[in-house]
């Protein structure tokens, strides 16, 4: 699967939605995903800024071996608080993968952000490195290299964006309407 590259360095990926043997125009899906991505990215920014029901939580994680465990704990606790316990298992797994990648391949402080608007749970992991993650196929004898594959299979969509401080890698999962308490 190839990534779409946006002018500002944003790359998006979507899991395959077509079953084997289904004939299709290989570019029709790309064009539709491009239109959807532009629309979704704009909606997320607007919704986070204007939605009174939006919920956001951000934490700086320790740059140590305990960061992934801390991120899993924070993710599960916050999703339980927000009434999204049904998303906690998948979110925990994917958060753990992204935080581990940040520790292994990134630099500087790692930041975890969770946000919920309408029907979307968005998770972002930021670090100080500018190198973007690449989906690759791990060999059978490799211990690692499957985190982004899991992300690609389980997330609704995911991507990465370079920032002035490094990069943010994010993913989205289906959520549900959350009302402010």
From TrEMBL:
Q: Where is the Histidine kinase/HSP90-like ATPase domain?
A: 67-171
List the Gene3D superfamilies: Histidine kinase-like ATPase, C-terminal domain
List UniProt keywords, sorted A-Z: Kinase, Serine/threonine-protein kinase, Transferase
Record the organism: Microbispora corallina
Residue ranges of coiled coil: none
From which domain of life does this come?
Answer: Bacteria
Is Hydrolase a UniProt keyword of this protein? Answer: no
Q: What is this protein called?
A: Histidine kinase/HSP90-like ATPase domain-containing protein
InterPro entries membership? Anti-sigma-factor_SerPK, HATPase_C_sf, HATPase_dom
